[in-house]
Amino acid sequence: xxxxxxxxxxxxxxxxxxxxxxxxxxxxxxxxxxxxxxxxxxxxxxxxxxxxxxxxxxxxxxxxxxxxxxxxxxxxxxxxxxxxxxxxxxxxxxxxxxxxxxxxxxxxxxxxxxxxxxxxxxxxxxxxxxxxxxxxxxxxxxxxxxxxxxxxxxxxxxxxxxxxxxxxxxxxxxxxxxxxxxxxxxxxxxxxxxxxxxxxxxxxxxxxxxxxxx
Length: 214
Ligand code: SAM
Ligand code: MG
Prior knowledge:
- By secondary structure, the protein is of the alpha/beta class.
- The chain contains ten helices and seven strands.
- Strands 3-2-1-4-5-7-6 form a seven-stranded mixed beta sheet, sandwiched between helices.
- Strand 2, helix 5 and strand 3 (112-116) form a beta-alpha-beta unit.
- The radius of gyration is 16 Å and the shape is globular.
- The protein starts with a helix and ends with a strand.
- The chain binds S-adenosylmethionine and magnesium ion.
- S-adenosylmethionine is lined by residues 40-42, 66, 68, 71-72, 89-92, 95, 118-119, 141-143, 146.
- Magnesium ion is lined by residues 40, 42, 141, 169-170.
């Protein structure tokens, strides 16, 4: 039977990157997606914005919504301080299986907990199941109709604190108008847009960074 795109992406990682070297894993995936097959990773251009937000924040507790093959997981985890933890949620078992191998290949499995399941089911269980008080940083990159309900769910579950940073991908393409309208007009957030391009294309897209004010 024909292989899937995530399986071919993993093969490219194993062939063209160095085990234990996250930067080489990132480069191998970007090269594969730019020259072979497009895939829905945050990509290199928006990825460098993601890098600067993570580096500036130096977060200890991170939540990622939407793992796919683990590209952004590797990107974020490689910048985390010792002892920091990244929980990433993925509800597609085939993608999760690939992501586990990509994360392990990058040598980052000690920093990353990949949780299989839907965000709406797991967010309410974060405190009891993982002993999380609050997250310092949340990267939203799952299905776009879930950004707003999951943000409200994180608020209701007490997972955000004054200063928690939400970074949302694809706010222009495909776009998340309900989420943008909420974080830009709510007095509980200070929000700003980072203009960029849709991964591996020239189409406008960007990231919205929203600081929770409590
Ligand atoms: N963040 C990844 C990166 O940049 O490398 C890309 C993530 S991809 C755009 C979105 C992923 O979210 C898909 O793999 C999809 O299966 C997953 N997903 C979508 N809705 C979800 C939900 N409600 N809970 C868990 N995973 C979800
Ligand atoms: Mg995205």
